[in-house]
Specification:
With about 150 residues, the protein is α+β, with helices and mostly antiparallel strands. It is built from four helices and six strands.
């Protein structure tokens, strides 16, 4: 069963409207889905934390300008009380010709038919494929040693 916000609106409806707004580059429709005091954090990137709809609007205006064919795909989404967990695929081509691809998960707190807070776990998709052995060695300082066949 879909979760409802405090005014009885399905949380999935808010997410579907967000996808529609960003895919049509409708900045005002997207901004209207966020509370004026929206709180955003990216736990893996603490310096990217901000508060307010106006910063959200400025961020997305830059995204739409810099990635004119920006597309978002909502891969899956599940409601957990007042939190909607969503998996995203973002893609497009930047105005400098570079490909743009991000994948990840967002946790949005929704109340009164707007997003009041978000935790974003979105990352650039690697262009240079790096194997797991190299990644583990970079993270730990030790290369994994396989045991057995």
């Amino acid at each position: 069963m879909a979760s409802l916000t405090s005014v009885g609106v399905c949380m999935g409806d808010v997410m579907n409207r967000l996808v529609g707004a960003v895919n049509t580059h409708d900045l005002e429709a997207a901004a209207a889905l966020f509370d004026t005091d929206y709180r955003s954090s990216q736990p893996a990137h603490p310096g990217r934390t901000f508060t307010g709809r106006e910063q959200m609007r400025a961020n997305w205006a830059a995204m739409f300008a810099g990635i004119p064919d920006f597309r978002a795909e909502l891969v899956r989404s599940v409601d957990d009380g007042q939190i909607t967990w969503s998996e995203w695929r973002w893609s497009g081509t930047r105005t400098d010709g570079q490909p743009f691809e991000m994948r990840g998960v967002t946790l949005f707190e929704i109340a009164n038919d707007v997003i009041v807070a978000g935790r974003l776990y979105l990352e650039d998709v690697e262009r240079d494929v790096i194997g797991i052995d190299e990644v583990v060695e970079t993270l730990s300082g030790h290369r994994p040693h396989k045991v057995g066949p």
